[in-house]
Design brief:
- This protein is mainly β and about 80 residues long.
- It has one helix spanning about 25-30, and strands at about 5, 10-20, 40-50, 55-65, 65-75.
- Strands 1, 2, 3, 4 and 5 form a 5-stranded antiparallel beta sheet that branches.
- A hairpin with a 4-residue loop joins strand 3 (about 40-50) and strand 4.
- The longest helix is centred in the middle third of the chain and has 8 residues, at about 25-30.
- The protein is elongated and about 35 Å long.
- The mean pLDDT is about 95.
Length: about 80
């Protein structure tokens, strides 16, 4: 369960890993299907469950035709 929601556009998007470089690739394919999976990172404004708004680095997986999956907050930037 996500403990935050993204309330702004994601900026400074960057690819961290592609395809077989992703440790969770077999799990992603099993859950969401085959695709050209990428692990990504970027910066966004998020709202925490308690209502607080923070700027944070977030990571996620994405594949064309499947979309963005499994957002994770990594670091607060404010």
């Amino acid at each position: 369960m996500e403990s935050f929601s993204i309330i702004s556009d994601i900026t400074d998007e960057e690819v961290i890993a592609i395809g077989n470089s992703i440790r969770d690739l077999p799990r992603l394919r099993k859950l969401y299907g085959d695709g050209r999976w990428r692990k990504m990172k970027g910066i966004a404004t998020i709202q925490l469950r308690n209502g607080r708004i923070r700027k944070a680095e977030i990571h996620w997986y994405e594949a064309q035709g499947i979309g963005r999956k499994e957002f994770k907050r990594k670091n607060y930037l404010d």
